[in-house]
Amino acid sequence: MRVIALAVLACLALAGCGSGSSTDEPTIPPEIASAVDPSPTNPSTGMPIPSEVPGDEFGTVFESRPDIVRANPTPFESWSRADGNTVAIHFVTGTPECYGADATVTETDTTVTISLRTGTLPEAADKMCILVAVFGTLEVPLQAPLGDRQVING
């Protein structure tokens, strides 16, 4: 029985050895390559660079909640120009009955860096919450009009 098992293992090992050269590189179909190609990232933070979208593409509106618990940094996927000195950021989080968001802003002459945190609402900390992804929007006030400054994840 051991001889048969060793023979089978030897055949499998030989079958796994290919005749191709070690310089052969696997080819990835373009539709798959574009799906796994990472988004452009900010070299200083490693966070994805969000894109601007029209202002009518809002998700579930979240109010800023600095009191969230178990908060984690969350990159936002896109942003929209809102009225005056306000930018709306769009992100994925949990349901607004259990989860909240808060953002801090750092402004320069050329950039608006927004650091988004999402976490559990204090009143839901001891409750069971469903795990459903929600596309959310949070309006973030700026000290000055956005103008032509770049909006980036912090």
Return the average pLDDT rounded to an integer: 80
Q: Give, in order, the helices and strands.
A: HHEEEEEEEEE
Residue runs with pLDDT of under 50 for 5 or more positions: 5-9, 16-37
Strand content: 25-35%
Q: Share of helix among residues?
A: 10-25%
Distance between the termini: 63 Å
List how many beta strands DSSP finds.
9
Tell me the strand order in the biggest sheet: 1-4-5-8-2
* Count of individual helical segments: 2
Instruction: Give the radius of gyration.
Output: 24 Å
Helix/strand-derived category reads: alpha/beta
Structure description:
Mean pLDDT is 80; it is low at 5-9 and 16-37. A hairpin with a 3-residue loop joins strand 6 and strand 7. The termini are far apart. The chain is α/β, with parallel strands linked by helices and 154 residues long. The chain has a five-stranded mixed sheet with strand order 1-4-5-8-2, with no helix packed on it. It has two helices and nine strands.
